[in-house]
Amino acid sequence: MADAETEGEAPRCVGCGRRVKTLFVQYSPGNIRLMKCDNCKAVADPYIECEFMIILIDLILHKTRAYRHLLFNKLHIGSSLDKGILYQSILVYIVVDAFRISVSEGNTADKNSSRSMLSTIFICSEVLGNSLLGNVVFMAILLLGVRYILKLSFDIMRYREVLLAVIISSYFKLFLLTMMVWEFPSSAIFIVELFVLSSNVVALRVMTQFPKAHCVGICFVAHAAKHLTERWLLRTP
């Protein structure tokens, strides 16, 4: 009989957030028994037996249980954080944000079709630069807020975990890529950004276990600083 515990830190109960020894016990292939949490006496992680779409729906509904399952028990944030995953996530985040800036400013492919290749490359590099600087400001404000408002102890690994969790919780930004195929009103970008903000609040709260009001304040200020930076850069000749 083999249990489900992997190397590194123990998984967590999605209900109360406490660590558990193992999430399930496997008696034979396809025959498992979900384990209960010693603290809340509930099944530690019922999402193990759920389909991906059910988990995705709960993530969209901002259920902290779904976020704990994804961040702690699926991605194992807090056990063995791979720098490669963090850097790749940041890269994708910046590129998608650059696409958002391009769409919001009307720099779409059909409007730039008459431009030269050199001009197109220059515009793309400028948009990427704006996205990069805006997100540097966002991440700096976020981590400073975590350090000085939430009083999180200074630990590079801990900050990487928080940053990765916030970036992963911004998954709804990928919806913007559908604008390459279908047309949406400009208000769709604002709605997506609001959803990402609220999702970031849930992820930050799950990772730090601090009051919602503090997490809302930090995420709001970080997002506001990013967008103000982007506005300033776009208006700078």
User: If helices are DSSP runs of H or I spanning 4 or more residues, what is the number of helices?
Assistant: 7
Cross-sheet strand order for the largest sheet: 1-2-3
- Indicate the proportion of strand residues: under 5%
Q: How does the overall form come out from the CA principal axes? A: globular
Structural class: mainly alpha
Descriptive account of the structure:
- It is built from seven helices and three strands; from the N terminus they run E-E-E-H-H-H-H-H-H-H.
- 26% of the residues are buried.
- With 237 residues, the protein is mainly alpha-helical.
- A hairpin with a 2-residue loop joins strand 2 and strand 3.
- 56% of the residues lie in helices and 5% in strands.
Short description:
The chain has 237 residues and is mainly α. Helix 2 packs across helix 6 and helix 4 packs antiparallel against helix 7 (212-235). The model is unreliable at 1-8 and 107-112 (pLDDT under 50).
What labels describe this entry?
237 residues; mainly alpha; 3-stranded antiparallel sheet; 3 strands; 5% strand
Blueprint (SSEs and pairs):
Blueprint: E1 2-3, E2 24-28, E3 31-34, H1 52-60, H2 64-74, H3 83-104, H4 117-148, H5 156-168, H6 187-208, H7 212-235
Antiparallel strand pairs: 1-2, 2-3
Helix pairs in contact: 1-2, 2-6, 3-4, 3-5, 4-7, 5-6, 6-7
